[in-house]
Amino acid sequence: xxxxxxxxxxxxxxxxxxxxxxxxxxxxxxxxxxxxxxxxxxxxxxxxxxxxxxxxxxxxxxxxxxxxxxxxxxxxxxxxxxxxxxxxxxxxxxxxxxxxxxxxxxxxxxxxxxxxxxxxxxxxxxxxxxxxxxxxxxxxxxxxxxxxxxxxxxxxxxxxxxxxxxxxxxxxxxxxxxxxxxxxxxxxxxxxxxxxxxxxxxxxxxxxxxxxxxxxxxxxxxxxxxxxxxxxxxxxxxxxxxxxxxxxxxxxxxxxxxxxxxxxxxxxxxxxxxxxxxxxxxxxxxxxxxxxxxxxxxxxxxxxxxxxxxxxxxxxxxxxxxxxxxxxxxxxxxxxxxxxxxxxxxxxxxxxxxxxxxxxxxxxxxxxxxxxxxxxxxxxxxxxxxxxxxxxxxxxxxxxxxxxxxxxxxxxxxxxxxxxxxxxxxxxxxxxxxx
Length: 435
Description:
- The chain is of the alpha+beta class.
- It contains 16 helices and 15 strands.
- The protein has 3 domains: about 170 residues, Ribosomal Protein S5, domain 2 (2-Layer Sandwich); about 100 residues, GHMP kinase, C-terminal domain (Alpha-Beta Plaits), CATH 3.30.70; about 110 residues, no CATH class.
- The longest helix is centred in the first third of the chain and has 16 residues.
- It is globular and about 55 Å long.
């Protein structure tokens, strides 16, 4: 998830990227009726957009190709996940004495509604993250995911917004350190299918689990390895969806004839994704399909990669850089905060999670880091870590053409509090940044 050039008239804009289920295996069902899933998930570099601005009173406006499908009045409007996310987060913050004033939210609805690519869930996740920025506060990631889960099983993974495996009801998330970007087409015949009906129609609810390829020390996984592995995976919801909506077969056949290397339904449908060998192959297929099926929704996109930044050099630089920063007067600094450039944002975002969420850190170490970085009860200044990392990426190189910054002048406590965590990260053992 990222900010971009922005919807005019708003303080900033966040992209809510389309979620793509590269595979979805139904492996069981809980006693309460929830299905147990194992899903390989990635995200597109395009999707809905949400504009954020402070306001005298709460406002919600919409635009975009599919905004006509969004109810704005009555009980149906209250079920909009953007508004539900706003209200849940506000209630959480208000209960803890944190101001969460009125806002103007604008949803540019570019993704089809109820189409199996997580539009509503991504909108909710983007709303949570955007409001934290707008209200200039932070919430511990575990608490934020609890709020997200109340909005829907897919919302926690949309908070991550990077390649991952989701298990359970979607709340057990395993992120990838490295995962390739694919040239992808997303195609939807603009025919709605009912997710509850599809689950009721499942022939089996105890199917074989997901198997993902494993890298070897002497040969890391290549893009072709992942593409081949995905070919052998499944979407267990697809047969039921095809029975409900025959036009899904037409999408499958059209993509098969277009030269796609892999094609499959995403989520509960009716959207299909297709992976191509090159961007040129994808773009050629998109152009041809747009002429052949002008009534279909077709999105030409690249999936978001995951890149492993656990490099010894960068880890040592981080430690040294923080120690050097601890001697400065940060109130005189004008920090330029990185907000644009999808690849760089993903790298930054992954590094943040590595520093705090790395499973190699012991539970005691995580707890101690929490005691240092949390301002009050369950509120953690995640932006404090972001700020110091921004400075590192600024120093060690982002392409000028990929930079888009906003000024953040007050980072005194930011880096100082991060630097106070150094004894934890420098501790002997597996939790060491320099180890």
